[in-house]
Amino acid sequence: MRYIIFIVAAISLVFAFVFASSFYKGQQAQKIGGMAKERAEIFVRPHSQTYGSDDAKVYLIEFMDPACETCSAFFPFVKQIIAANPGRIKLVLRYAPFHDGADYFVKILEAAKKQGKYWETLDVMYATQPYWASHHKPNPELIWQFLPKAGLDLEKIKEDMNDPAIRQLIEQDLADAKTLGVTKTPGFFVNGKPLQTFGDTQLIELIDSEIRANYVK
Amino acid sequence: MSKYCLPWRIIIMSSTVQTSTFGWTILFLSWLMASIATLGSLYFSEVMQFPPCVLCWYQRVCLFPLVIIIPAGLFPFDKGIVRYALPLTLAGWLTAAYHNLLYTGVIPKSLQPCSKGVSCTEDYITLFGFLTIPLLSLLTFSFVAALLLLLITKRRSV
Predict the structure, then answer these.
(1) How far is CA A28 from CA A9, A95, A172, B47, B53, in A?
(2) Which residues from B are below 8 Å from A2, CB to CB?
(3) A5-28: per-residue pLDDT in tens?
(4) Nearest by CB to A13, which of B35, B49, B77?
(5) Burial of A165 by CB count in 10 Å (0-12 exposed, 13-18 middle, 19+ buried)?
(6) DSSP three-state, residue B64
(7) Which of A13, A33, A40, B22 sits between 20 and 30 A of B150, alpha carbons compared?
């Protein structure tokens, strides 16, 4: 009898937990889905860097941090998915520089954008990240030696990166990340639907379901 | 027990059975409380994604083991489990009490041992206008401690 009471209690607790979790996640997804319809600007701001065709019907939004190891490791995979679906996916990069001092690197990226070298600079940053951000401590001094590889005019970068507009843009992105409940990077949304559990197969599934919904095969 | 004659042994044994049903229920309730609190705490951190602060972690260190060790005293029923469960509960209670003093501002914030990452006084959730997460923790530890103490005072009276 005691065993039965105990086991029933234990199983009920676990069920209650699982039920409450899925209920909460469903509610959050609905809330964010509603925002995607009514306040689409939360996901894509005019200043946001995008990649891919403007006619694409699937918008992949990534909240990233240049100093985040997982963002760096995951980015080739994101590019692969986009390449595998030519013209159908548009990537929107948003900033969530959660590491201390990571906003410095966002400023460099934004300054590089003015020279038309955004993606080249991002590639160099990610490739050399183990040197300038080892142990999650971004060190601004160490990035400069690598930047010429992206073909940048360094003097101009130093001048442009202190533009107050860049600071505002970072603050806007961080505010949107907060609204959308992004607490970890990379944080993905596909057409306003959050990636609920992080992983490559989960991301592919989410993107595929949106492609199926928007493109008739 | 061998020094008692048979009728006495029967009386003692039946009274032990009586109190042990009561005792078992008390111990079971303390396990239930600890388990609900553990799942609640995991719900806040894993589902709602509230990052736990340092003090929360110390309380979790005291709370989570109770879910595992109390059942060791339930099957078979053994009041001796209080010796292992009560120190954890009291340590958790003290940490929770300190956390609440910090949270309500009785102890100034500058004395807090928290890391820069997550503030121990950040307001995440307040239920019914007064129930904060540190208060839930304090209530849990108080409840479990009260049940465990009830169990050993019961032993003395028998």
Answers:
(1) 28, 21, 21, 11, 24
(2) 24, 28, 74-75, 77
(3) 999 999 999 999 999 999 988 888
(4) B35
(5) exposed
(6) helix
(7) A13
